[in-house]
Amino acid sequence: MKIILDAMGGDNSPYAVIDGVALSRKKDSQTQFVIVGNLSEITKYINEKKYDFSDVQIIDAPEVISCEESPTVAIRQKKNSSLVVSFDMLKNDESIDALISTGSTGAILAGGFLKIGRIKGVSRPSLCPVLPTKKGTNVLIIDSGANVDCKPINLCHFAIMGSIYCKELFGIQNPRVALVNVGTEDTKGNELTKETYKLMQKLPINFIGNMEARDTLSGDYDVLVCDGFTGNVLIKSIEGAASFVMKELKTAFKSSFKAKLGAILAMSSLKKLKTKMDYNKYGGSPLLGCNKTIIKSHGSSKADTILAAINLAKSYTNANINGKISDAVLNMPDICEVENV
What we know:
By secondary structure, this protein is α/β, with parallel strands linked by helices. It is 45% helix and 16% strand. The chain is built from eleven helices and twelve strands. The protein has a seven-stranded mixed beta sheet with strand order 3-2-1-4-12-11-5, with helices on both faces. The protein has a five-stranded mixed beta sheet with strand order 6-7-10-8-9. Helix 1 packs across helix 10 (303-318). The protein is globular.
């Protein structure tokens, strides 16, 4: 397998990517890597760390696409950016199986759409991150920000893709799929969710109805379907709440001698909680619905996150999830026509 990594898009670039590749090479010598970015920075760091990267291909691409730029304009105009060069290589080199980037989410989405293209039959690609639940399981959120305005057909495709991803990578044979809504009753919601509810009942998935946001981490669901606006707000609200609780706990434990003693006694449980809520262990989110494997990692990713992203890219590709999505969408019930949406 051959994986290309955009080394310049994140907060810790290019160091996290280089260290992540080094960690992966210790565990798996068979995977080939291509690192794209500022050649002088990359080679200097490799030499400083004394990594043996003699069989790692390094491509010079000095430009960087920032989060402040227009994604579509940047993808079209910044030909020498690390992300665009990575996408071009992914598109034109059949030996490359996957791309990983910690860069601008918007630019990755634009590149995936414009450079790699959609799987035939898929109306829109979508991001599908993973969250932990109180039952020790995982729950997938699709879409989490790629498509802020959606039609019912888009959400139906998200449900199909999310169900396949959940089954193939997490081993859940009949994933419980729910529609994120303001109430559990089938009459609740806006026009989008009401119409989608009717259509999802006809899909060949285990659709169990609507779900309210407060039950996101309950463990009662495996895949949560929503438009990108709702999904992004949902995930960031959970991240913010988790961060707030952890900070408040730290403040409370420092408030008195008794509190500090309690913190010492609870340290083991607190570490388990922190580990459970750590997004780094998931590596990133696949862009479901594109013709090749594309993994979007968090902008603040460190070496262990890149390692997890590499493992995710390998598992995703080996499971042939794109092929299974293609088959499922093409055989989907004729509930509505796929337009240029």
